[in-house]
Design brief:
The protein is α/β, with parallel strands linked by helices and 646 residues long. It is built from 21 helices and 28 strands. Helix 11 packs across helix 12.
């Protein structure tokens, strides 16, 4: 019987389309799941969507549809993004699923009946975006410790989970299970910041909104996210207090929860205590991975720096996106992505190092030997290459067992680099000119084909489509593709197919220009007025107008933006003492030298947006001259910078 391996991801919040930072979770988990299957495990892989809460209720109301209709739409989008990344999950659980709904209601009732949940009143600080309560001591500079936003005072009747009751037992579990945390640094954070200061009981119901699973015995309350969403890891495989499924008994406890570092507390404190209270085993390990940043910032739609994985996959291929995510995220430090870094890595690693190696090896095998090369006798001249191949195999399995995906990916790419160096060292094109060197030439090409076969084997869980394409070009049988054949010299011979480029090299400047042009077109389309006749414009209240912060700013510098015909980059003095950058689509009507020194009116509280690679921190006012296509910037020279316009 195969050993089991149960792996989960954090379920995506069904409020918006997930960006590429969210996608790292699912790609990492998929690579681990594929690797475990390759190693002979019986794997069950769970992912899904978290669909309840106040924010979703608000978003649905803004859109004029029911919360259920709203989450149906977003859940379909999440699945579309995951599927675009070739993810092999076994179940996509939704917290609106009937079996989850039923089990969570019973979990809550069971905990209440055994006095692990009690009714009281919450009076403290609440972060609306995070939907989280905090004590004053937990705030950072008076703001939410998780997202840094403002919190509000909240007072609400609620049910609470007795975290304090299980604090000592949880600490003991940490001591007895040193591998519970990956990386280890997360353990110290939980102990020093939360357990040692003492756990406060956790609010696990809400009565200020309705979109959630009702408390069965007190229906004016809905079950809060901690019990609802976290329970998916057991309800998704059939747990129910009234009787669990064979699937649950087979796979629980989970071998690995894959989550972001920002929700480690929920998975290593709240979730273990819920399981302890239920009398169920705890998961064996929690992997709290770092964030994928855009530039130096966490990705956020409000910052205008969001990159979507499915859009990258559509343009550059699924495996290119998987490769970037898996290779660019260190084990314990944040990763980074920009369009430019993605394109440069695509060319350097996928097109040049890997793609070029495979293409020219297959081409030379066809050219010099009609496509067939046989295994040679061992030659001391090839010892270093063979040693590198053997070391790569050993290191790869060790690194993947430790979930160090970036290091494992680097190990494979380093073998490709060594093979390319081997080509330069042996110069097959020179050997081909000397009939006496024919055996040596055949040995060189066999060694390259054999290394490429091993590369494809190791890439199978990481870049599955690419691995399959390499195997197809090598034309090796399935018995030479698995982990049992991951040994140098296993193939007796190769009869290769037609060389086909795996990744076409990109023109980085041209591709960046196309991306920025598409972004600018989208911005302009979004900003275009939907009505032309002023008589039909909707009226606004005075309070709505006062929300717009209009200020005078002086233009200290102005320059064109490369690859953006319509935009100028303005550097403004708005009286705050900190220069402000604004992009304005006025290049058709003004030259930079016409604007420097002028004072304009600035919309100072507009959400930032990235236009053609530049973050624009506001907007300037201009008039669309009636009866012509002329645009006139509204100048207010002589008014001090920072003056309010009202």
């Amino acid at each position: 019987m195969k050993p089991t391996f149960y792996i989960t991801t954090a379920i995506a919040y069904a409020s918006r389309k997930p960006h590429i930072g969210n996608a790292y979770d699912i790609v990492l988990a998929d690579a681990i799941a594929r690797y475990k299957r390759m190693m002979g495990f019986d794997v069950y892989f769970l992912t899904g969507s978290d669909e309840h809460g106040q924010k979703i209720e608000q978003y649905a109301a803004e859109k004029g549809i029911s919360p259920q209709a709203y989450v149906d739409e977003v859940a379909d989008t999440i699945k579309m993004v995951w599927d675009s990344l070739n993810v092999t999950y076994d179940r996509f659980i939704r917290t609106t699923d009937a079996d989850h709904h039923d089990a969570v209601a019973k979990i809550f009732k069971k905990l209440y009946e055994q006095d692990d949940i009690y009714k009281s009143e919450y009076n403290g600080k609440y972060c609306v975006p995070c939907e989280s309560f905090f004590t004053a001591s937990q705030l950072v500079d008076g703001k939410c410790p998780d997202c840094g936003r403002e919190v509000i005072d909240a007072k609400e009747e609620a049910y609470f989970l007795r975290l304090s009751k299980y604090q000592d037992r949880l600490l003991q579990y940490y001591e007895e299970n040193p591998d519970f945390f990956r990386p280890d640094s997360r353990r110290n954070e939980m102990i020093n910041n939360f357990l040692k200061p003492g756990l406060s009981d956790l609010c696990v119901s809400r009565s200020s909104f309705k979109w959630g699973i009702p408390v069965e015995f007190d229906p004016k309350h809905v079950i809060y996210v901690w019990v609802d969403a976290l329970s998916n890891y057991i309800t998704g495989i059939g747990y129910n207090p009234d009787g669990s499924s064979d699937l649950y008994r087979k796979y629980w406890p989970a071998n690995l929860h894959v989550i972001g570092k920002d929700i480690v507390r929920f998975h290593t404190i709240y979730w273990p205590i819920i399981l302890m209270a239920l009398g169920e085993p705890l998961p064996r390990q929690v992997l709290g991975h770092p964030w994928m940043l855009c530039g130096e910032d966490k990705m956020s739609k409000s910052k205008g720096n969001v990159i979507y994985a499915d859009e990258l996959a559509k343009q550059f291929g699924t495996d290119a996106v998987r490769y970037y995510l898996l290779s660019e995220m260190p084990f314990a430090q944040d990763g980074n992505i920009t369009y430019e870094s993605f394109l440069l890595k695509f060319n350097a690693d996928l097109a040049n190092t890997l793609g070029n190696l495979v293409n020219r090896t297959i081409a030379m095998t066809n050219k010099y030997f009609g496509g067939t090369v046989r295994r040679p006798a061992v030659d001391e001249a090839d010892a270093d290459l063979i040693a590198t191949a053997k070391d790569t195999l050993s290191r790869f399995f060790t690194l993947m067992d430790g979930y160090r995906n970036a290091d494992a990916t680097d190990a494979v790419m380093n073998l490709c680099k060594r093979c390319n160096k081997y080509i330069d060292e042996t110069a097959p094109w020179v050997l081909a000119k000397d009939e006496a060197q024919k055996d040596r030439l055949e040995a060189v090409l066999y060694n390259l084909c054999e290394c490429i076969r091993l590369v494809a084997s190791l890439l199978t869980p990481l870049l599955p489509d690419t691995a399959a394409a390499i195997f197809a070009q090598l034309q090796v049988n399935e018995d030479l593709q698995g982990v049992d054949a991951a040994e140098f010299g296993k193939a007796d011979a190769f009869t290769v197919g037609t060389p086909t480029p795996l990744f076409a090299r990109l023109d980085v400047e041209k591709t960046l220009a196309e991306i920025y042009a598409a972004q600018q077109a989208a911005v302009e389309e979004e900003a275009a007025p939907e009505v032309e006749n002023v008589a039909f414009l909707p009226q606004i209240a005075f309070d709505d107008f006062t929300k717009v912060d209009l200020r005078v700013a002086k233009i200290d510098a102005c320059e064109p933006i490369p690859k953006a015909k319509k935009l100028l980059k303005l550097t403004l003095d708005d009286g705050s003492g900190t220069p402000r950058t604004v992009c304005s689509g006025i290049a058709k009507w003004y030259k930079p030298e016409d604007l420097i020194g002028k004072s304009i009116i600035l919309v100072a509280n507009l959400k930032p947006a990235v236009l053609c690679g530049v973050e624009s921190q506001g907007m300037i006012l201009a008039a669309d001259c009636k009866g012509s296509e002329d645009i006139k910037v509204l100048f207010v020279d002589g008014v001090p910078a920072g003056s309010t316009v009202r």
